[in-house]
Design a protein that fits this description.
Layout: H1 7-31, E1 35-39, H2 44-53, E2 67-71, H3 86-89
Antiparallel strand pairs: 1-2
Domain Nitroreductase: 3-72
EC number: 1.-.-.-
Pfam families: Nitroreductase
Length: 94
């Protein structure tokens, strides 16, 4: 069976591929000082209907798989960011 033979399998695969683009967009935004957040768990049918109504997608050929929000924070977080030392989180294998 080919990937394209099963619509659900094809959708699941293509949905996972969107995370590659999301990661690149979120990394680029962070480098520009823009915060971002990936979004799942939304009403897919309702979002697709809104996008189709505004002629952003063609519902017979396209659909939304994930979303991401971008924006500038109003204020800095209460707690400073901290990172563990590299030696505590990276193991090099020879």
């Amino acid at each position: 069976m080919k990937l394209a033979d099963n619509p659900r399998t094809l959708f699941d695969w293509t949905a996972k591929q969107t995370y590659i683009a999301l990661a690149n967009m979120m990394t680029s935004a962070a480098l520009m000082g823009i915060d971002s957040c990936p979004i799942e768990g939304f009403d897919y049918d309702q979002v697709n209907a809104i996008l189709a109504k505004h002629q952003i997608i063609k519902p017979d050929k396209e659909g939304i798989a994930s979303m991401v929000s971008f924006g500038y924070r109003l204020r800095d977080p209460k707690h400073p960011r901290s990172r563990k030392p590299r030696e505590d989180v990276i193991t090099w294998l020879d």
